[in-house]
Design goal:
Aminopeptidase, five-stranded mixed β-sheet, alpha+beta, 5 strands
């Protein structure tokens, strides 16, 4: 079965989607270590998203099972009444470079446009050059910088490690 995109099913896809989070967060947030508490909170937010008309979670699946996801949200900000926001996107390493990230972004575009969004937004880690290049190639442009100032050494981020998962 070639890879295809479909709506996430909580019962059958939950474990796979949760298994992606360690790589996603520890790669994109240097110094972060996955904890049981973080994963529990993520799971609760994901379950809530699946019940919301303002969010949509799609998975990428092939013969080996769920191998990617995109989590979408319709948000409002202080300056914009409606923005399509990509909360999370992931493609398994074995499928990277084959266009599946773009396919998930295309699915996001369709859903956002169907819901009247004039634009889409996402956050990207500068060090994740492959993802940043994909976003640039699919029409995303940087519009502001998110700057950080650290008060703790990267390996002592409060609340980031806790009890390991």
């Amino acid at each position: 079965m070639p890879p295809h995109i479909r709506a996430m099913n909580w019962r059958t896809d939950r474990a796979a989607v949760l298994s992606f989070q360690k790589e996603i967060y520890e790669t994109n947030f240097p110094g972060f270590r996955m904890s049981v508490g973080f994963l529990r909170d993520y799971e609760a937010q994901l379950r809530q998203a699946l019940r919301s008309q303002m969010e949509r979670v799609m998975v990428l699946e092939d013969e080996q099972g769920v191998c990617g996801l995109v989590w979408l949200s319709l948000i409002t900000t202080m300056v914009e009444p409606l923005v399509g926001y990509i909360k999370n996107i992931y493609v398994a390493p074995r499928l990277r470079g084959a266009g599946w990230g773009r396919a998930l972004l295309d699915e996001a575009d369709r859903w956002f446009q169907q819901n009247g969004c004039p634009k889409a937004a996402l956050d990207a880690t500068i060090a994740n050059e492959r993802a940043v290049n994909t976003y640039l190639q699919t029409g995303y442009v940087p519009v502001r910088y998110r700057m950080e100032k650290h008060y703790h050494a990267p390996d002592t981020i409060p609340g980031a490690s806790g009890d390991s998962a």
